[in-house]
Design brief:
Blueprint: E1 7-11, H1 15-27, E2 31-35, E3 51-55, H2 63-71, E4 78-82
Parallel strand pairs: 1-2, 1-3, 3-4
């Protein structure tokens, strides 16, 4: 059974994407936390989330490294990897 409300973390250094995702999740009644700095993440708190929207390309650390730290304290947490690139 899927809970009526999901606790969702958006971890993306690109504030436009995290802001857009926050509005979409809020409109669906979910509880959302946004983080634009991967250095602020406490791996022990990751088990509080049902879903993490995770950017792959961030300065200093990448999404794959973060997934490895998520799997220890929160193996049941769903992760959706996202990324964006701009054309110069």
């Amino acid at each position: 059974m899927i809970p009526a409300r999901q606790n969702i973390l958006i971890l993306d250094d690109y504030k436009f994407f995290s802001s857009l995702a926050r509005r979409l999740a809020a409109n669906s009644g979910n509880i959302l936390e946004e983080c634009n700095d991967p250095g602020e993440i406490n791996p022990l708190k990751l088990c509080n989330y049902n879903l993490i929207l995770l950017d792959i390309l961030m300065p200093g650390i990448n999404g794959v490294q973060i997934i490895n730290s998520i799997r220890q304290p929160a193996p049941a947490t769903g992760v959706v990897l996202v990324t964006s690139c701009s054309k110069h």
